[in-house]
Write a structure and sequence with these properties.
heterodimer; A: 300 residues; four-stranded antiparallel β-sheet; 9 helices; 16 strands; globular; B: 258 residues; alpha/beta; seven-stranded mixed β-sheet; six-stranded antiparallel barrel; 6 helices; 18% helix; 36% strand
C-alpha cells in the first residue's frame, strides 16, 4: 500500500501534517505523538522578529469549534532556527515553516534567512485574521496575493505554499492569483472570522473582540473551498479545517487535496494526527486501495 | 519533560459540597503517583460539541489509593455536564499539568479565595511548617472545604457579605487577626492575587500565586493562556509566560497584572 504523496517535489511518507499554530514546533506534542510518523510538521507562524501577540483572553469555545486570537505570538526566526529546527532535525519527518510578517519586506527577510536551513517547504501565512497589519491584509485581494507570491518566489530557496483565507468572496480567484504569482502549492482554509459575546458579563469573549473560528464546525466550508480551489488551479493543495478523524481527512482528499493538516483536534486529542494516519491506512485496506493518490480529487 | 498522561479515569464518587460546587475523586494511579500540590488536570467533556478541556486544579492526592480529587464550580455547560457524572462513570483527563508550589520551611500563609481554595488543601497537608490558612468566601452559607482544612492549621475566614468571620477580603482577615508570615501561597481571583502581590511586596516576603486563564491545549503549545511576566519567557522571549506550562504557580514578583 502506498501512502506517499508529493507536494512541490517534496515526498511525504503520508499526507498527514499539523496545522500551523496548533502544534507549536512539535516539542510539546512529542510526548503524545511519534513525530517520525507524520508526513510533515508545520511550525507555528514565525516573523523576522519576536511578536508578543494579543491580550488575553485569547481563546473561547463555541459549538463544535473554538475562536482564537493569539495574534501570532512567536519568538522570531533566529530562535526558530537555533531551537526549533534543531529539535525537528532529530526526526524523520518533513519540516514546513509557516512564515508571517507585517510587510512584504518582513516576509522576504524570513524567507531569505531560512534559505540555507533544514526546511523542506515554506508556508506563507497571508490569512491570519487576528493581526492588524500583514496577515489577512495580503490575503483578501487577488492583486496583493499575486504580488506577494511573486516577491517571495524571487527569494525563496524552498518551494512556497500560499495559505489562503476563507474570508473572501471567491476562493477560486485567490487560488488563481497565487498560481499566477508562481506559488508551488496552496493550503486552505485558515480560520473564519467570528465573534462570541459573554451575555452575563456583557463583553466580548475575546480581548481582540473577533477571532478565528476553527474545529469541526467549519469542516463543510473547508471541504467546499478545497473542492473549488482544486477545480480552479493545477497546484497541489493541502486541505484543512476541522479534521478530527481519518474520515474527515479522506473527504478532503476526495475533494482534491493532496495532503491534509490536523489542527484544532490536537488540542483535545493530542494523538489525533496518528489516529488519522492509521485510520486512512485502514480505509485503504478496507476498500482495496493500493495508492492513496487514487483518492485525490476522485469526487468530481 | 515532566510526565503527563491523557487517560480514561473512573469516578469513585462525586458530591455537591455547596451551591454550584462539586467534589469528585478519580481513580488514576499514574497521575496520583507524580502529582504535586498546585498542579492541575484537564477534564474533557463527553458531549462532542464541547471540544476544549476544562483545566481544574488538584484538590487532594491519595497516592496509596491511586486517587486524585478535584473541586470545581459550575461555570458553564461544560462543568455542568461534568457535574452530572457519578460513581462508576468514566471521564477522560490529562495530567498532571503545570508546575505546582515549591514547598518552603518558613512560616506560611495559605490563602485561598473562592474556587481558588481547593488546591490549598493538598498543600496544607504536605506543608510541614507553622502555617495559617486564610480562606475567602462570598458568604457564610458556602464555606466549602473549611472544616477539611482545620486539622492542618489555624483557619481564618473572610466573607464578602460579613455573614461569617471577617467582613471583607482575605487581606482584611489577615489585618483583623494581626497575622504575619514569611512565605505566602495563594490561589484565587485576580483582584485577590493582585492584593496578595502588593501585600508581599510591602512586607518584603515571598509569595507564590496560582493564576487562571482561558486555555486550549493545556501543554504549552497554543500560547492561549499567557500572563505578562517581568522576565522574558522561554518560548517567545516576549515577557509572556504560559500559565499552563510555566505556571500556573508563579513567584508573585514575576507577574505583571494589567
Amino acid at each position: 500500500m502506498n501512502t506517499k504523496v508529493t507536494i512541490a517535489g517534496v515526498e511525504l511518507k503520508n499526507p498527514v501534517m499539523t496545522a500551523s499554530g496548533t502544534f507549536g514546533s512539535g516539542e510539546e506534542y512529542s510526548e503524545f505523538v511519534d513525530l517520525n510518523r507524520l508526513g510533515a510538521v508545520v511550525t507555528k507562524g514565525v516573523a523576522n522578529v519576536p511578536w508578543a501577540g494579543n491580550p488575553t483572553p485569547r481563546v473561547a469555545e463555541t459549538y463544535g469549534g473554538m475562536l482564537n486570537a493569539i495574534g501570532l505570538q512567536n519568538p522570531g526566526v533566529e530562535v526558530l532556527i537555533q531551537r526549533d529546527l534543531l529539535f525537528l532535525k532529530q526526526y524523520q519527518t518533513k519540516v514546513i515553516v509557516n512564515v508571517c510578517g507585517k510587510t512584504i519586506e518582513d516576509y522576504c527577510e524570513v524567507v531569505e534567512r531560512l534559505s540555507d536551513q533544514a526546511v523542506d517547504l515554506l508556508e506563507i501565512n497571508i490569512s491570519c485574521p487576528n493581526v492588524k497589519e500583514g496577515g489577512i491584509a495580503f490575503g483578501q485581494d487577488p492583486k496583493a496575493v499575486e504580488t506577494i507570491t511573486k516577491e517571495l518566489k524571487k527569494r525563496a530557496k524552498q518551494p512556497i505554499i500560499m495559505k489562503l483565507s476563507p474570508n473572501v468572496t471567491s476562493i477560486s480567484d485567490m487560488a488563481k492569483a497565487a498560481e499566477a504569482g508562481g506559488a508551488d502549492a496552496l493550503s486552505l482554509i485558515n480560520t473564519l472570522t467570528g465573534m462570541k459575546i459573554d451575555i452575563e458579563k456583557r463583553c466580548f469573549a475575546l480581548a481582540n473582540k473577533t477571532g478565528g473560528l476553527s474545529g469541526p464546525a467549519i469542516k463543510p466550508i473547508a471541504v467546499r473551498m478545497v473542492y473549488q480551489a482544486a477545480n480552479a488551479v493545477t497546484l497541489p493543495i493541502i486541505g484543512m479545517g476541522g479534521i478530527v478523524t481519518a474520515e474527515d481527512a479522506i473527504e478532503f482528499l476526495m475533494a482534491g487535496a493532496t495532503a491534509v493538516s490536523v489542527g484544532t483536534a490536537n488540542f483535545f486529542r493530542p494523538a489525533a494526527t496518528i489516529e488519522v494516519i492509521e485510520g486512512i491506512e485502514q480505509y485503504m485496506e478496507r476498500h482495496g486501495i493500493e495508492d492513496i493518490t487514487e483518492l485525490v480529487g476522485c469526487v468530481r | 519533560m515532566a510526565e503527563k498522561w491523557k487517560e480514561q479515569v473512573r469516578i469513585i464518587h462525586q458530591d455537591k459540597i455547596s451551591e454550584g460546587i462539586y467534589s469528585v475523586w478519580f481513580q488514576t494511579e499514574r497521575i496520583a503517583e507524580v502529582a504535586v500540590p498546585g498542579q492541575f488536570v484537564s477534564v474533557y467533556c463527553k458531549e462532542g460539541s464541547r471540544l476544549l478541556p476544562r483545566p481544574i486544579s488538584i484538590c487532594e492526592i491519595n497516592q496509596q489509593q491511586g486517587q486524585i480529587r478535584i473541586v470545581y464550580r459550575i461555570a458553564g455547560a461544560g462543568t455542568k455536564e461534568i457535574s452530572s457524572y457519578s460513581s462508576g462513570d468514566v471521564l477522560e483527563i490529562m495530567g498532571p499539568l503545570g508546575n505546582g508550589y515549591t514547598l518552603k520551611k518558613e512560616k506560611a500563609f495559605l490563602i485561598g479565595g473562592g474556587i481558588g481554595i481547593p488546591p490549598m488543601l493538598e498543600l496544607a497537608k504536605q506543608l510541614h511548617c507553622e502555617k495559617e490558612i486564610i480562606l475567602g468566601y462570598r458568604s457564610g452559607a458556602d464555606l466549602f472545604l473549611k472544616e477539611e482544612f482545620e486539622p492542618y492549621g489555624l483557619v481564618f475566614t473572610a466573607t464578602e457579605d460579613g455573614t461569617f468571620g471577617t467582613k471583607g477580603t482575605v487581606l482584611d482577615a489577615i489585618k483583623e487577626n494581626h497575622l504575619s508570615a514569611d512565605q505566602i501561597y495563594a490561589c484565587g481571583p485576580t483582584p485577590m492575587l493582585r492584593a496578595v502581590q502588593l501585600y508581599a511586596k510591602e512586607h518584603g516576603i515571598k509569595a507564590q500565586i496560582s493564576l487562571e486563564e482561558r486555555m486550549a491545549c493545556g501543554i504549552g503549545a497554543c500560547l492561549a493562556c499567557v500572563c505578562q511576566s517581568k522576565e522574558v519567557d522561554t518560548h517567545s522571549y516576549v515577557h509572556n509566560k504560559r500559565v499552563c506550562k510555566d505556571g500556573p504557580v508563579f513567584d508573585a514578583e514575576e507577574v505583571k497584572f494589567e
